[in-house]
Amino acid sequence: MTLIKSISGIRGTIGGNTGENLTPIDAVKFAAAYGTWLKSYSGKENLKVVIGRDARLSGEMIQNLVVSTIVGLGIDVIDLGLSTTPTVEIAVPLEKADGGIILTASHNPKQWNALKLLNEKGEFLDGEQGKKILEIAESDEFDFAQVDDLGKVIKNDTYIDVHVDEVLKLPLVDKDVIKKAGFKVVVDGVNSTGGIAIPKLLEALGVEVIKLYCDPTGHFPHNPEPLKEHLQDICELVVKERADFGIVVDPDVDRLAFISNDGEMFGEEYTLVACADYVLGKTPGNTVSNLSSSRALRDITEKHGGSYEAAAVGEVNVVTKMKATNAIIGGEGNGGIIYPKSHYGRDSLVGTALFLMLMAERGGTVADLRASYPSYFMSKKKIQLTPDLNVDALLDAMHQKYANEQVSTIDGVKIDFPDNWVHLRKSNTEPIIRIYTEAKSQAEADGLADKIISEIKEVAGID
C-alpha cells in the first residue's frame, strides 16, 4: 500500500496506516494544508473552492472529508459531485473561484484515490506552490474557523453540461459539420464519469453513441489505463457494430484514446498528432509535448510550418512551455490534449470534438487517417521499485553508459539515437521507473525497451 506526496498533490491507496496510505486522516491533513496555503496565497477573506470527483468507490468518502475540511477553514465550496478533471478546471474561472480540488487517481486502479490541486485559473499548481503545501501539511499548523465563520457548500451538478456547451462554442468546432458526417461511435467510459460526459458531448454533436461501461459505479471493468492490452472488449465491439471508431477515456477523462474502424488501436500518441493536424491546418503555430511523446508531433508541426519543443513530463511543465512558446496546441503522448482556446488543461471532450472535425472534413476511415501519419511505434514498460533501490544512481549509471549519445537529463534520462529513443524516469504517481521507447517498428521499440530493462536490472543487481 502506498502514499505518494508530490508537488502536484497527494495520491495513495485507501485503507491501512496513517502516513503510509491515503487514510481519512491524510485526506483531511492535505485538504487543510491546501486551504491554509490558499488563504495565505490569495490574501482574500472570502474564498471559494470548486471540488469534483470521479466515480471511483472511495470518491464519496474522500469528497465528504475534503469538503468538510475546506468548510472548516471558513472557505466556501462549490460541490460539483460527479465530474471530470477538465470540467473542474473550466469551472474554477467560470465560477470566479480561488482554486479547485479534483478527487481522482486518474488511470490508477480502484484502490487508489488522490487530491489534485488547482489555482485560481483552474491550472495545476507550480512546483514552489506544491512544495509549500507539503511543508504546511508536515507542520500540522492549521487555523480553523470559528463557528460563525464556517464556509458554506453550494451544490452544482450541471457543470458537465456547461463543459459540453463550452466545447461547442469553440471556433474550430462546427456542430453542423459533424452531424452531417453521420458518425457512429462506441464509447468505453470505464464505469466512471467519462461515461456521462463523452456521450453527452457526442449526442450534442449529432453522433450516434453505443455505450460500453458507461455506468458511473466506480467498478472498473478492466484496468483503467487506456492501453491496448486492456481494451479487447471495445476493439471487438467497434468491428461488430461497424462503428466509425471507438473512444476510450480514463476515469477522470483527461486521457483520450481512439480505436480505429478495423478494431485496432489508433495509438494514444497519435491522439495529439491528429488533433494538432486539424488545429494547425486551420491556425498555424507552435506545439509542445513532453519528452516521452512521439516524434510524430514534431513532424506534423514542421509540415504545417510551425516549431515544436519538448517539455519535462507533467502537465504543469507542458503548460509552462506552451505559454513560453505561444503554442496553439500541445499535451502529452498519453492522449492528453491541451488546447488553450479552451483552457490550459488536458481535456478529452475538447480532443474528441477536434478529432470529429478532422474526420468530418477529411473523410475516409480512421484507419486511413492513421496510415497517413509518420509511422512510429512505442513501447511503454515499467520496473517496480523497492525501498532499497537508489533510483537516482541507477539513472546516472545509464546516463554515463550512453554519454556519447544525445542525452537530456531535464527529466530523468532521455537518450536520442539516430533512429529511435529511450526515456527513463521515476514516476511521480507510482513507485516505478517508466521506460518509454520509440522506433520505426514495434519489434524494434520492444527490443530496445527490453535491452534497457536488462541493463538497468544488471546495474541494480535485480534478477
TrEMBL record:
Q: What is its EC number?
A: 5.4.2.10
Q: Does the keyword Metal-binding apply?
A: yes
Q: Which EC class heads this enzyme's classification?
A: isomerase
Which cofactors does this gene product need?
Answer: Mg(2+)
Q: Where is the Alpha-D-phosphohexomutase alpha/beta/alpha domain?
A: 8-142, 173-263, 270-374
Keywords carried by this UniProt record: Isomerase, Magnesium, Metal-binding, Phosphoprotein
Source domain of life = Bacteria
Tell me which family the UniProt entry assigns to this protein: Belongs to the phosphohexose mutase family.
What is the protein's name according to its record?
Phosphoglucosamine mutase
Q: Which organism is it from?
A: Flagellimonas allohymeniacidonis
What is this organism's lineage? Bacteria, Pseudomonadati, Bacteroidota, Flavobacteriia, Flavobacteriales
GN (gene name) = glmM
